[in-house]
Predict the structure of Autophagy-related protein 27.
Amino acid sequence: MSGKLWIPRFLLITLVLISLRANSQCEFSFTRRNKAFHFNLASPIRNSPHGALSEDGFYRVEANGTVLWFQLCDLLIFNHDPPRCVGCEDCGGESHCGTSCSALVSETIRGYDVCTSIGHASSTKVDMIDKEDPGKGVIVKMSGGSRNQNCSLSVSVICQKNKIDGPLTMVKTDSCHYATELRHPSGCAVAISRHGSGWGWFSTLLIIIFCLFGAYLLGGALYRYFSLGIRGTDVIPNLDFWATVPHRTQSCFGSIFQRFRGPSHGQRASYSQVNF
C-alpha cells in the first residue's frame, strides 16, 4: 500500500516545488521615495487564479510570419497546439518541442519552420518598467540561445486593474531579441507601504527587553508566592533593589548634569579668593 502511495506523493511534492520556484522568480520588490512596492506575478487575484501566468501553460502571439510562445517565470506546457518546427534540441527535442524553456520563437527559413529558444526560467529577471513611475508595471526579461545565438525576450506587464489584454503585438530588434507586452492587474503593486512606518529595530529591541523584564517579574512573583509563601509587596523579586532604582537614576543624572554645568557659584568664589 505504501508503495502505491509513493508516486502520488512524489508528484505532489514536485508540483509544490515547481509552484514555489515560479512564485520566487515572479516576485519583485522596489523602494522609491520612502515607499516600498511589491509585485508577485504568480499570486492569485480575482478572475486570475494563476496571476499573470497563462492558465493554458503558454502565451502565443504571431506577427509577420513569426510565432512566439512564452510563459512567465516558468516552463512552457503544451496540452494543445504544440509548436511544429525544427531546431528544438535545447528546448525539449523534436518530440517535446518547447517543453524545456520559457520562450520559443518560430520563423520560416528556406521553407522550413525553424525554432529558436529565446528564454529560460533560470535566466528570468524582473525589473521596473519605469523607476520614476513604479506604478506603471514591471518588465520580465528572459534570455536563452541556441546555435550560438544570444537571444532574449522582454515582456512588459503593464498595470491595468480592471481587465486583461494581450499579448497582441510583437517587436523584433537586432537578430534575435523580441519584445511584447501584457496589460494585467498583476502588473500593479499589490502592497505599498511607507518605509519606516512600522517598528524599527530599536523599538523592537525595547519591546523584547520589556517583555523579558515582565516575564522575570511575573515568574519571580509566582515562585515566591507559591513556593516560598511570601505575601504582600515582598512577593516582588529583589524589591529592595527596585525601590532604590529611582533614587539611583536621579543621582546618576544629577552628577552628569553637574559635570556638564561646571562648578557651582560657591566653588567659583572660593577659587577667586585663593587667586587673590
The chain has two domains: 13-193, 201-264. The two ends are 107 Å apart (CA to CA). Confidence is low (pLDDT under 50) at residues 1-22. Helices lie at 2-26, 201-226, 239-261, 265-275.
